[in-house]
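Comment thread on ticket #2218

A.B. wrote:
> Attaching the input chain for the structure job we discussed in standup.
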Amino acid sequence: DGVNNTADNCPQVANPNQANNDGDSQGDACDADDDNDTVSDSADNCPLVANTSQANNDGDTQGDPCDADDDNDGVADPNDNCELTANSDQANRDGDSLGDACDSDADGDGSTVPADCNDQDATVNPDATEVNDGKDNNCNGVVDEGFEDTDGDGVRDLDDNCPSTANPSQTDSDGDGIGDACDSTPFPTPTAKDQCSDGNWQNLTDENGNSFASEKACRDYAKKGKVKVKNK
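C.D. wrote:
> Ran it. Output below, let me know if you need it in another format.
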């Protein structure tokens, strides 16, 4: 090979370029382990790059240290936002350095799986406030809780003073938080003093809806406990 045996790193094997990948005393042409990783070249999936573990993410003929595309998705590792997870579309919902396929917080909402029950939607995570949108925003297993309208009157149960009885007006004559429609005692039991004085008698009626002619008439009737607010 033109190299004197005393200087030749493979005196018995021709190698005029004297290539020696691992820089030991043997040239590549006669070295059984060219990368000196203790795995012989014949069994080494990266014969010129040390990889004792023989890691091979995509299971092809090349080990990871010498494979330009470790996930075999057609995107070279230097350009791949998920080097070890195949994602040829390189989808990256939150625009960070990791593609959705390998990002534990793909939607960038600060919550990771499995706590985040939909990592493709930033409006869904354990810290989100539930809104009426057909989703389980706060990941508690219930969709639109608090926005149910059991009686179908257009008022959500959370705000409805009669959640099981339709009463769109939400009338609550006695102000006790229970609507007239479902209150067994919907009207206040007034006294002549607190209901009929200071001109209030003009805003009241008897149980048949008849107005009072005077404060005294209101007081007399109030003693029966049946005075009502007008137009209720």
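A.B. wrote:
> Thanks. Noting for the ticket: The mean pLDDT is 89.
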